[in-house]
Fold this protein.
Amino acid sequence: MSNPEGTQKLQNGMPSLADLDASLRSKRFLSNVLGINSPPTSQGTQLADGFVHLEQKALIEYEALRITLTAFLENGIAEDFHRAQDHAETCVNALHRGIEYLDRLRSLGFRRADGSPYVPRARELAVLRDDRRRAVRKMRDLLEHIDADILGGRVAPGGDVTVCLTFESLQLGPAVLSYVQMADNIRLLHSFAVELSEVRITVANAPPSSANG
């Protein structure tokens, strides 16, 4: 059964990331072949590779979550809802790891050509702030360790053991992670992934030809 009102509520509560480039892994590979866009150490390069992989995974899974959850609201097929749960779990895991990779890159202290830090300090970059990281980590930990929580009696009888998808957020036990915050985190990670991946060539005007040709 179609639920146009619910579909609209989801569109309002879950920003689209369809405008972001989901092909950066291939571009990162080309950058490596050309020897550009990489930190100047082997560890830095490996962290950059892993970071781009995870940011792209989080982006793709977020969009898949949005598409399948919308499909569920439009056709009422339960399998679409379950696929959306799967995409949500994978997105949270990749997002958590991507944030950690970016923080590792920050800790290596790489600088831009003008001397400014490649990755700003946590207080200057929202995705690395403690409150943002705690929200993602809390959801990720509950998803990863729900079996231990069940055995430890920390899940109420009849309580959810899989992520609950609302019109505005993911919920599981005491953990709540809004789609707006997920989308903003992914956008911020994406801005760094683009710099580590895109090959940009600047074409200037040709110099004036001499009188002698």
In short: Residues 2 and 75 are 5 Å apart (CA to CA). The mean pLDDT is 90.
